[in-house]
Amino acid sequence: MGKDDVKLLTMWASPFCMRVKVALAEKEIAYEEIQENDLLTCKSDLLLTSNPVHKQVPVLFHDDKPICESTNIITYLDEAFPAKPLFPECAYGRSRARFWADYIDRKVHPAGRAIWSTKEKDEVEAAKNNFLEIMKYLDGTLGDKDYFNGDKFGFVDILLIGLTTWFPAYEKYGDFKLEDHYPKLAAWITRSWARETVSESLTSPEKITNIVIMLRKMHGLE
Ligand SMILES: N[C@@H](CCC(=O)N[C@@H](CS)C(=O)NCC(=O)O)C(=O)O
Fold first, then answer.
1. Which partner for 174 in 35, 128, 193, 198 could form a disulfide, CB atoms 3.0-4.6 Å apart?
2. How confident is the model at residue 222 (pLDDT cuts 50, 70, 90)?
3. Which mutation among 35, 57, 105, 158 tests ligand 1's pocket best, with the greatest number of atoms within 8 A of CB?
4. Residue ranges of the GST N-terminal domain (predicted)?
5. What is the average pLDDT score of the chain?
6. For a pocket test of ligand 1, which of 40, 47, 56 has the largest count of ligand atoms closer than 8 A to its C-beta?
């Protein structure tokens, strides 16, 4: 069998692209990265033809076949490249991983966005409280473990860690520190970022905060 051809259509500020990059790094899969340059005003033909339904990055190409939606991509990678599995071994563990993946995908990024996309103080306060409520459940399921499934960094960790690049912007505009509320979850972020597969795949939170400042200016919020 020939060498797998893997490409990732990506955008540097996208937390959904970053999580796929972490998965590829954890599984030691070589790939070529193709940057989507202008998601706001001029999407590439490659993006429009490979993800006609959502027109969003990331898109993974495996031997030229497109795979869309970051969680679906990471699940696919774990099935298509069985070495270094990301999912737990037992069926119950896998079912829990899918449950938390779904929770993270539905809740975290929209809740964070609600914090920085308004300048009304009461709306910011409500959004911050909602975000912290979501963090409470994640902190609860993490508990005293190093990672969400125990001592091995895996699927749920990968899904959440990409999104944490935006957390400092949420803290800035919500005027809170995650570690004051959930020190174990904050320690999990530090522990996960210490992995080379993570630090080399994620965009720095400073750059993301600058993007948020730019987006707020565009929407007349600064
Ligand atoms: N549910 C999707 C979300 C992907 C997503 O929101 N991508 C953004 C960049 S962060 C995008 O392509 N936005 C362009 C658009 O929605 O038009 C996933 O997990 O892949």
1. 128
2. confident
3. 57
4. 4-85
5. 97
6. 56
170: Cβ contacts below 8 Å, ≥ 6 apart: 112, 115, 116, 128, 131
Q: Which residue shows structure tokens 């400092």?
A: 168
Q: pLDDT tens digits for 171-219?
A: 999 999 999 999 999 999 999 999 999 999 999 999 999 999 999 999 9
The CATH number, out of the four listed (3.40.30.10, 3.40.50.980, 3.90.550.10, 3.40.980.10), of the domain defined by the range 6-80: 3.40.30.10
CATH 1.20.140.10 fits 91-218, yes or no: no
Domain boundaries, the chain: 6-80, 91-218
Vertex 74 angle, CA 68 and 77, to 5°: 100
Name beta bridge partners: 9. Answer: 34, 59
User: 52: cis peptide before it, omega within 30°?
Assistant: no
